[in-house]
Structure formats: C-alpha cells, structure tokens
Amino acid sequence: MRRINPLKRIGLLMKNVGHTGIYSVSGRIPVTLLHLDETYIIDTKAEDKCGYNSVVLGTGNLRNIAKPQQEYLRKLGISNKCKLYESRSHDLSGIECGKKISIEHFVVGQYIDITGYSKGKGFAGVMKRHNFSGLRASHGVSIAHRSQGSTGQCQDPGRVFKGKKMAGHLGNSRVTVQNIKILSIDYENNFIVVKGNNIPGFKGSYVFVRDAIKKPLHKDVPFPVGLFNGVIS
C-alpha cells in the first residue's frame, strides 16, 4: 500500500510500561502505556551534506554506553550517557540542538506506527513456532506427536527445499504494528495511552513510535516536532 502521509516528522523512542484496560460505554478496552523519557535534540544531519535530513536524539541516562558514543557526546559537550538514535525528518526548520522534546509531539486521536523487538522465546518446535497440528495421537505414532513429519523427498529432488518451516529460534525479531490509535495523553507524567495490547517487546523495553504512514497526518500535530524550552545539563 502506498504512503498516504507524505510529510515525515521525527519518531521517538518510548518505553513500554505495560498493558492494562480502560472502560467505556462499549465495554473494556485493552490499552498499552508508553512513557517518554527526557529526550533532547543532540545533532542534525542535513541533506546537502549527508544526502538526507535527520535528527540525532538522546533519551534517558544510561549507566554505560559504547566508547564511540561517549566520544561523540564529548565532542558535542554533553555529559549525559543518553541512548542515541536517529530519526529522519521531512524538514529541519525550527529544529535546534539542545532543545527538549515534549510529549505534545503526539496528539489524542492520532494514528501511529510502533516498531520494536518481540519477546525472545528461544528454540521452539514447529507446533509453537508455525502452528502445526502435530502428528496423530494414536495408532502408529510413537513419542513423535509434536514433530513436523516429512520434510523432503527421496531421489528426486533429494533435498529439503529452502524456506521449509522447521523448528528453530522464535521471537526477538523486529516487528512493526501499524495504525495504532492514541486514546489519551498524560502531559504531566509524559505518558501516552494507545489502543490494543499487541505492542512488541517486554515490559520496560524501548519501542520506536512515529506517525502512521497509511493514515493522513492529524491536523493538530506540531510540525516538524513538538518542543518546549529546555537545555541539556
């Protein structure tokens, strides 16, 4: 499906706080809470120099970060050990280094896309990994009820085709859920409440939240980014 939203604003890393439910006249609605840590604009990359427009952002205050990131922050005069990430933007006008990102970057009723890494579940069999039905639980099957059965052929072609569904590693893969609606925003505590409990990742993990590409941009969102006055300490 082609992109409906032509204007690209920056996306933000937010922490998956967990799932809960809210009640309305239609019944219980499952929701997920996402929290925005203190996020600052660290640097910008312009199209004339780098070939594209993007914003380098820093969020949180980690205990340890990689030495290349430490050196990068030191050259910019930043003492915080923040989590660095980059997000492309359609326009860099009005974006200044040192400014703090506000939760008002998003608005109630807006649709967003959320990207994260699914929960890692280790090595899994075909019944759990691919929803196979398994073998017969009666005559002729001995201690192989959850196996996958035949995987290939004999003399012709004499091999297992590539892409065959088999047992293996399950989870810990990059997942994007689209068209998630924002139901409410807690501006005081920097929380947004989104509809559904299908957000990838475990409790406390970071997810990347951006405008939905298959929905029109909400008329009330700030462009190119929601800011309020603040500097990095």
TrEMBL record:
A GO molecular function assigned to this protein is: rRNA binding
Q: Which gene encodes it?
A: rplC
> Which species expresses this protein natively?
Wolbachia pipientis
Q: Which residues carry this modification: N5-methylglutamine?
A: 155
Task: Provide the assembly information.
Answer: Part of the 50S ribosomal subunit. Forms a cluster with proteins L14 and L19.
- Signal sequence interval, chain numbering: none
Q: Which UniProt keywords apply?
A: Methylation, Ribonucleoprotein, Ribosomal protein, RNA-binding, rRNA-binding
Reported modifications of this chain: Methylated by PrmB.
What is the role of the protein in this entry?
Answer: One of the primary rRNA binding proteins, it binds directly near the 3'-end of the 23S rRNA, where it nucleates assembly of the 50S subunit.
What name has this protein been given in UniProt? Large ribosomal subunit protein uL3
The keyword rRNA-binding appears for this protein = yes
Q: Which family does it belong to?
A: Belongs to the universal ribosomal protein uL3 family.
| Gene Ontology terms: biological process | translation
